[in-house]
Amino acid sequence: MTDRNIDILVIGAGPAGLAAAIAAREAGITSLLVIDREKEPGGILRQCIHNGFGLHRFKEELTGPEYAQRDIDRAAELGIPIECSTMVLSVSRDHLVTCVSPVYGIQRIQAKAVILAMGCRERPRGALCTPGTRCAGIYSAGTAQRFVNLEGFMPGKRVVILGSGDIGLIMARRMTLQGAKVLACVEIMPYSSGLNRNIVQCLQDYNIPLLLSHTVTDIRGLHRLEGITVSEVDQNRKPVPGTEKHFACDTLLLSCGLIPENELSLGAGVSLSSATSGAIVDETFETNVPGIFACGNVLHVHDLVDHVSAESYKAGCSAASFVLNRHSEDSYFSVMDGDGVRGTVPQRIHRNVDSPVDLMFRPAGVYRNCAVVVECGNIEICRKKAQIFTPGEMALITLKPEHLRNLDENILTVRIERN
Amino acid sequence: MKTMSDILIIGAGITGCCVARELAAYHASVLVLEKESDLAEGATKANSGIVHAGYDAVPGSLKAYYNVRGASMYSGLCASLGLPYKQCGALVIGMNDQDRETIEKLRLRGEKNGVSGLRILEHDELLSLESELNPAVICALYVPSSAIISPYETAFAIADHAALNGVSFRFNENVEAVHVQPDGLFRVLTSSDEYLCRVLVNCAGSYGAQIHNQLSDTKLEMIHRRGQYYLLDRMDHPPFTHTIFQCPSSMGKGVLVSPTVHGNTLLGPTAEDIVDPMDTATTSEGLSEVLRKAALTWPNISVRSNITNFSGVRAHLATDDFIVGPCDSCPGYYEAIGIESPGLSSAPAIAQDLAGIIADQLNLSAKSDMVPCSVLPVPFRDMNTEEREKAVAADPAWGNIICRCETVTEAEIRAAIRRPVGARTIDGVKRRTRAGMGRCQGGFCMPRVADIIAEETGVSLPDVKKGSGDSFILAGSVESFLKGDTAYDRSEY
């Protein structure tokens, strides 16, 4: 058995893990390691061959693999070791990481700090409790994306997409371009959970109907999918009898939400937020377990990889500070979700913070011409106006250190003020 | 081409597999025909997985007799095959005085059937045993000998042992007609072939009556009774450690809440009579019924961690008892019909009896060189660090985790395909290894499992199936689609 001692171990070599590792190295950490279960680094970007990545960060439109390659190249330049085909089996509270790979067998790695960057998984059919048969032809959108883009095979010919998450929208266009017929995209909510640009470019441009306030209520087919029933839903998301539409299709793709992959985090004693399903962190992205940091989609599901990279870079810097003993004292503000706001990250902020803090959250609904307000007790400390908020696009408000000075209360509330 | 065998068994569910294994101990050629693509594809893969103690069946019935006898065999059977068996005990809970009367009756019935250790527990003791239990519970029948197993994994291991001892299994062989030839041999016609045999054994599950009615003077009618379930994710502390039954009452039979041997929680089943035994769809009505009823046992019920819903179809006879043994009006024809609950618990005992009578009739001699069953290797997820280290050192495929939710390695998936009666489909690998049984439902591992199946069985990826029939996972290559090529255009929906 190999036993190693290192300063920082990063779990996951997707955009989050790579950015965090690059930041840590740039901050002066030489003893660090990135591990990933896949054969190559890059994470889910490897199968995202469409463009639109990097508009914020690089001011150009890259494909997923191109975006990932920039970080992989930078990591190589900095001499950051990445061990692939390595699966982490457990992380302990005191940073002992056990992993396995075909080449090195079982390894136990003791790190001074651990950065969790495992990403997320797609919500499967079981979580939706959709009735019907359990035939072939029902896949999560990401699984279908892997088949088409990495393996070169088409899952089917006549496709319905349940859920309007971004991967589902992207796959609607991808399947269409590859010669399949996409009959509809069905969304249970009265609004899409995907980016507006994807609704335009992936559905509208190809005349694929988006059925809002609809869901799949039956699945038919003994062996391979033969058809589905779609029903309208009422305000409580319950199907309305008499509104059934039948689609003959051989494929149903699910794009019904992403779930941060936090089984390892739980094993390490990391507390999770019920709003984000990710770790509860402070503005340095440190979890409740000292020296364990979380960033990217394992922390909260992002819309844009650019934001993942930016967040993870900060997490990498914080982990480096932790190792280099520049950690600040522990007196915090708690950040709470107020009206119209869900899943604000970070959930805690050091009172003596000395650099700006981005508060990221999901609007709970579609709101027009309103403002996001941060309050401490009765004192409004920050306000930002916006024309529209939708749950499909993560919202952000930046707090400056001076906003947080001279406050008596310990609770910051983020809310959306509607007219 | 006509294939001749001494004994032909129709159906590779738990009963057919157990009978085949018992007969493998004798010098005789044994063939099992199965209409699906794998073992255990009917009721065996979709039931509650309980080894019932035997308090429920009417004293004197075959159900009572075989249940108690079969249940007593499981612990040894599972140990010898390296299968999970957990004597978790059961509680039949009562919420009112009428239930208390029923529970008292069940206790007496159980004692008559020879079930030991039955006791009636009161409210306080129950809540200290099971803290998630509805506090309105007043008493319960405590059944210490009730156990849980993995029904399909049990069938796989038993079939492997049969195959190691010469039994042949043929899949995708749907028996369309059976009759007796003038020479006394049975002629069995399937969709694609023809078989002859001296002895025919009907273990056809839902299709038992259909086979019976072609050979016997008496006619049977099978009632297909569907049961729907919820299967919740594994938890470090599952809500219940015992199998919790609701008291049968005028309101119906109720549903159970039970741990599984793998740490999941099972809720169900419903009981709906349906027309087509292949109709294993779930329905919104059925699933709501399970939730509504299970909430009586478990008021804090949460299905947020639901992994999957499924349903199975029980082979119910109007007489409400098993039919086991030779058929009077058709010499050489044997049957096990109506093997619904407690069929799983009863199967090993039913098989012992059937094989015994058949061996007598054919005057078979026992083999002296029966190959012992090979105990299944410990799964990677159950190994300690040292064992894992050794396994990877011996074969690097043990270090390649394919299913991350259930921690299943490439080595285990390859081994599942190479078993005596090996996996050929995504579902076959899933049930043998648990790859794809976890919270992501195969979202990550399914394409990788498909690659391994294609490689191991020498087929191309688009020929890999999820299960039976035309359940192909893919429609063709990206190139063939762009060319409008119909190379894999198998069917138009």
Structure description:
- The complex is a heterodimer of chains A (419) and B (493).
- Chain A has helices at 15-26, 64-77, 125-128, 141-151, 166-177, 196-203, 263-267, 305-323, and strands at 2-11, 32-35, 51-53, 62-63, 82-83, 87-91, 96-101, 105-116, 120-122, 138-140, 153-154, 158-162, 181-186, 210-211, 214-220, 227-232, 245-248, 251-254, 258-260, 292-294, 332-337, 341-345, 348-350, 357-363, 367-376, 379-389, 395-399, 411-417.
- By secondary structure, chain A is an alpha/beta fold.
- Chain A folds into 3 domains: 1-121 and 258-327, FAD/NAD(P)-binding domain (3-Layer(bba) Sandwich), CATH 3.50.50; 124-256, 3-Layer(bba) Sandwich (FAD/NAD(P)-binding domain); 330-419, Immunoglobulin-like (Sandwich).
- In chain A, the strands form 7 sheets. In chain A, strands 1, 2, 5, 6, 7, 8 and 20 form a 7-stranded mixed β-sheet that branches. In chain A, strands 10-18-12-13-14 form a 5-stranded parallel β-sheet. In chain A, strands 23-21-28-25-26 form a 5-stranded mixed β-sheet, with no helix packed on it.
- In chain A, helix 1 runs parallel beside helix 2, helix 4 (141-151) crosses helix 5 (166-177) and helix 5 (166-177) runs parallel beside helix 6 (196-203).
- The longest helix of chain A is centred in the last third of the chain and has 19 residues, at 305-323.
- Chain A is globular, with a radius of gyration of 22 Å.
- The N and C termini of chain A lie far apart (63 Å).
- By secondary structure, chain B is α+β, with helices and mostly antiparallel strands.
- Chain B has 13 helices and 23 strands.
- Chain B has helices at 14-23, 62-81, 97-113, 123-129, 151-164, 208-215, 284-297, 343-362, 385-394, 410-418, 426-433, 446-457, 478-482, and strands at 2-10, 30-33, 50-51, 85-86, 90-94, 119-122, 139-143, 147-149, 168-170, 175-180, 186-190, 194-202, 222-232, 243-246, 256-259, 265-268, 272-274, 306-317, 323-326, 333-337, 401-403, 408-409, 476-477.
- In chain B, the strands form 5 sheets. In chain B, strands 1, 2, 9, 10, 11, 12, 19 and 20 form an 8-stranded mixed β-sheet that branches.
- The longest helix of chain B has 20 residues, at 62-81.
- Residues 486-493 of chain B have low confidence and may be disordered.
- Classes of the chains: A alpha/beta (419), B alpha+beta (493).
- Chains A and B meet through strand 7, helix 3, helix 4, strand 11 and strand 15 of A and helix 7, strand 18, helix 9, helix 12 and strand 23 of B.
- Strand 11 (153-154) of chain A pairs antiparallel with strand 23 (476-477) of chain B, so a sheet runs across the interface.
